[in-house]
Design goal:
The chain has 72 residues and is α+β, with helices and mostly antiparallel strands. The chain has one domain. It has two helices and six strands, in the order βαβββαββ. It has a three-stranded antiparallel beta sheet. A hairpin with a 5-residue loop joins strand 2 and strand 3. The radius of gyration is 12 Å and the shape is globular.
Amino acid sequence: MPMKPISLDRAIEIAAEKNLRPGKVRGTSEIEFTRGGSPRVEVIDWPEFETILKDKNLEIHEGGGFMKLMKK
Protein backbone atom coordinates (compact mmCIF):
# COMPACT_ATOMS: atom_id res chain seq x y z
CA MET A 1 0.00 0.00 0.00
CA PRO A 2 1.44 3.40 -0.95
CA MET A 3 2.18 5.96 1.73
CA LYS A 4 0.10 9.15 1.64
CA PRO A 5 0.40 12.40 3.60
CA ILE A 6 -1.96 12.83 6.55
CA SER A 7 -2.77 15.70 8.88
CA LEU A 8 -1.32 16.00 12.35
CA ASP A 9 -4.83 15.56 13.75
CA ARG A 10 -5.17 12.23 11.94
CA ALA A 11 -1.70 11.18 13.13
CA ILE A 12 -2.74 11.96 16.71
CA GLU A 13 -5.81 9.73 16.28
CA ILE A 14 -3.71 6.87 14.88
CA ALA A 15 -1.12 7.33 17.63
CA ALA A 16 -3.85 7.10 20.29
CA GLU A 17 -5.18 3.88 18.72
CA LYS A 18 -1.69 2.36 18.67
CA ASN A 19 -0.61 3.68 22.08
CA LEU A 20 2.09 5.87 20.51
CA ARG A 21 3.32 9.24 21.72
CA PRO A 22 5.43 11.97 20.13
CA GLY A 23 9.10 11.63 20.94
CA LYS A 24 12.46 13.30 20.37
CA VAL A 25 15.83 11.56 20.31
CA ARG A 26 17.71 12.92 23.33
CA GLY A 27 20.22 15.63 22.50
CA THR A 28 18.89 16.12 18.95
CA SER A 29 15.93 17.61 17.12
CA GLU A 30 15.06 14.24 15.55
CA ILE A 31 11.44 13.29 16.15
CA GLU A 32 9.64 9.97 16.00
CA PHE A 33 6.64 8.13 17.35
CA THR A 34 7.38 6.14 20.51
CA ARG A 35 5.71 3.94 23.06
CA GLY A 36 7.95 5.52 25.72
CA GLY A 37 10.33 3.75 28.03
CA SER A 38 13.42 4.06 25.83
CA PRO A 39 16.34 5.90 27.42
CA ARG A 40 17.25 7.13 23.92
CA VAL A 41 13.92 8.88 23.27
CA GLU A 42 12.16 11.44 25.45
CA VAL A 43 8.40 11.88 25.19
CA ILE A 44 7.42 15.42 24.14
CA ASP A 45 4.06 17.15 23.76
CA TRP A 46 2.19 17.46 20.48
CA PRO A 47 2.76 21.25 20.09
CA GLU A 48 6.55 20.74 20.30
CA PHE A 49 6.29 17.82 17.84
CA GLU A 50 4.33 20.06 15.43
CA THR A 51 6.89 22.88 15.75
CA ILE A 52 9.75 20.52 14.89
CA LEU A 53 7.73 19.12 11.94
CA LYS A 54 7.36 22.63 10.55
CA ASP A 55 10.94 23.70 11.30
CA LYS A 56 12.36 20.63 9.55
CA ASN A 57 9.83 20.81 6.67
CA LEU A 58 8.50 17.33 7.43
CA GLU A 59 5.10 15.77 6.96
CA ILE A 60 3.54 12.59 8.26
CA HIS A 61 2.74 9.81 5.79
CA GLU A 62 0.58 6.78 6.51
CA GLY A 63 0.11 3.49 4.71
CA GLY A 64 -0.72 -0.03 5.69
CA GLY A 65 -1.11 0.94 9.34
CA PHE A 66 2.34 2.52 9.58
CA MET A 67 3.29 6.19 9.95
CA LYS A 68 6.53 7.66 8.67
CA LEU A 69 8.01 11.16 8.77
CA MET A 70 9.15 12.40 5.35
CA LYS A 71 10.39 15.63 3.78
CA LYS A 72 7.65 17.62 2.05
